[in-house]
Amino acid sequence: MIKIPVSADYDLPSLIRAVGGDPADCCYSDGALQVSDSINADALKAAIAAVDPLDSPRAAKRAELDAACTAQIYTGFTSDALGAAYHYPAQDKDQQNLTASVVESTLPNLPADWTTPFWCADANGVWALRPHTVAQIQQAGRDGKAVIVAAITQNGTLQKQVAAADTIEAIQAIVWPGASQ
Fold it and tell me: How far apart are CA 30 and CA 8, in angstroms?
């Protein structure tokens, strides 16, 4: 057995397999990887040296934050465009529909009484297609965009923190606001 000093922060099984070894032929204890003679220890040392042990935890945290950002956007948003607070959906298809409605509202030569139906829920949670005037659909669009931009901005800020984190503990401490750990 050959002992290779290495942090447990590395994805050691993947590195062992990358050099053609079997993780079952190794064991980790006391800050060192004990490797059987069947594994090319020099190749494994080179593979370990070439990898930042924080790459995998960073990638996992980035994916977690991206998912939290998407989930926050998908919860929808509230707008007072109709004169009272209504909740609007914001899944991908909903965003496309809102964009199409806002774009249509900017076309020239619309009738003075132009409206577009749009799906939203009132304060009692009753969902319905409600008519929106030009000004109302554009306001709903602005309100939805503000929520999306806020979530994307939050994600960008947290992603920068992940990139700057220099320990696994620091990476794990970065959480989406309101998310349970």
Answer: 10
Q: Specify the pTM.
A: 0.75
User: Tokens 């494994």 belong to which residue?
Assistant: 44
What ranges make up the beta strands (E) of the chain?
A: 2-5, 26-29, 32-35, 77-79, 86-88, 116-121, 127-132
CA distance 44 to 38: 12
The pLDDT tens digits of the residues spanning 18-72 come to 888 888 888 888 888 888 888 888 888 888 888 888 988 999 999 999 999 999 9
Q: What's the CA gap between 150 and 34, in Å, rounded?
A: 49
Burial class (CB in 10 A: 0-12, 13-18, 19+), 157: exposed
